[in-house]
Design goal:
By secondary structure, the chain is α+β, with helices and mostly antiparallel strands. 34% of the residues lie in helices and 37% in strands.
Length: 376
């Protein structure tokens, strides 16, 4: 009988983790913002006020990326009190790129760097971040068809502990249908994304578990033992259901040694799931609440004065993020528009916005990159 140094009572498992850091979603956002303040005393005071206004505007722009439009509107006072009035606390750096007197006003244009971690942390505390709902779909290349539930359970626990939601068992059953899961493994998310959208699931974590196992049966003080060494790897991707795009991918590796293959394997899987859960929930805090689309908006049917009135009121459309005029020719004005969602949603909200009813908007065409309307 060969004695080996094993603590039978504890069935010792040694774990050595090496979790790849890899690329993460940006931790800061660079924004160009403008401030304009009346000169009522000295110019220096007006400049300081214009800078403060520009910093607030930059933070408002950043908030607009991570908070849904309807949430932003209904919680304006909360945002004003807890975020906008404390804008400098979320700004890591800024510089003036343009400044000048404009009559009785002072204008500054800043390049502002907004720190997303403090901002999204505060927005989460206020309950204003989107409550993401996540599904986890795992496969394995290991020969022994192992039980992957420790990975799944660990990820789901961290997702829920962070305040997000996990997909129901019924949704997971639909995703695990071989006709769907086999396509997902190949990188084709079409069928899976449709299931997610139909069930209001926002994100899908797709993971593939691999590794190698080496086991040796022996005895320790007359007791049979199976000493195993397992290297585990999880390659995972985060997919957004509304666009079908892969937001970020990451790999995690760990190794463990101990007595009992199933026990060592479960420990490895749990640790892989825990680190994957920590990584992806951190990234979820930095995902824009809704995808943004860039559109060309062409408006016609009225004179330039009327079209200018229209532009001043179109900002009331809830999905609109930014609009700028790019030209006026032969009774048509062209705008560059950035909006949440897609062109269809923008067109729908454009016709439903009550403050624009006076313009009697007629949608001439609404395609993925261009919207043409007539107004009166």
């Amino acid at each position: 009988m060969k004695k080996i140094n094993v603590l039978i009572a504890g069935l010792l498992i040694l774990l050595f983790a090496n979790f790849a850091s890899g690329a993460e979603l940006p931790a800061k956002q660079e924004i160009v913002a403008q401030g304009l303040t009346a000169i009522t005393g000295n110019v220096s005071t007006a400049k300081d006020a214009a800078v403060a206004q520009a910093l607030r505007d930059a933070v408002e722009q950043a908030v607009g990326v991570y908070v849904l439009s309807e949430t932003k509107v209904s919680n304006f006072q909360l945002l004003s009190d807890d975020i906008y009035t404390k804008a400098t606390g979320f700004v890591s750096n800024w510089e003036i790129i343009e400044e000048r007197k404009q009559g009785n006003y002072y204008m500054v244009k800043l390049k502002v760097v907004v720190g997303l971690e403090p901002l999204t942390d505060e927005l989460k505390k206020l309950g204003l971040l989107k409550n993401w709902k996540i599904a986890v779909l795992l496969t394995s290349t290991l020969n022994d068809n192992p039980n992957l539930s420790p990975v799944n359970t660990a990820i789901n626990k961290i997702v829920e502990d962070t305040g997000f939601y996990v997909a129901s068992a019924e949704i997971m059953t639909a995703l695990e249908d071989p006709a769907v899961s086999h396509q997902v493994v190949k990188g084709n998310y079409i069928n899976a994304v449709q299931i997610l959208r139909d069930n209001h699931v926002d994100l899908l974590i797709v993971g593939k578990v691999s590794g190698d196992t080496s086991c040796k049966k022996d005895e320790a003080y007359g007791v049979p033992v199976e000493m195993c060494s397992i290297n585990g790897r999880l390659d995972a991707y985060l997919v957004r259901s509304d666009t079908g795009e892969t937001i970020i991918s990451q790999s995690f590796t760990t190794k463990s040694a101990g007595n009992g293959k199933e026990k060592v394997q479960a420990k490895v899987f749990e640790e892989l799931g825990t680190e994957a859960g920590k990584f992806f929930t951190k990234q979820m805090l930095r995902i824009p609440a809704a995808p943004l689309v860039n559109l060309i908006l062409v408006a016609s049917g009225a004179d330039y004065k009327r079209l200018t009135q229209f532009k001043n009121k179109i900002s009331n459309v809830s999905s609109l993020k930014r609009i700028s005029e790019s030209g006026f020719l032969k009774g048509k004005v062209t705008y560059n528009v950035e909006a949440e969602g897609n062109a269809s949603l923008f067109c729908k909200l454009l016709t439903e916005e009550k403050s624009l009813s006076e313009f009697k908007i007629n949608i001439i065409s609404c395609t993925s990159g261009k919207v043409e309307i007539g107004i009166k």
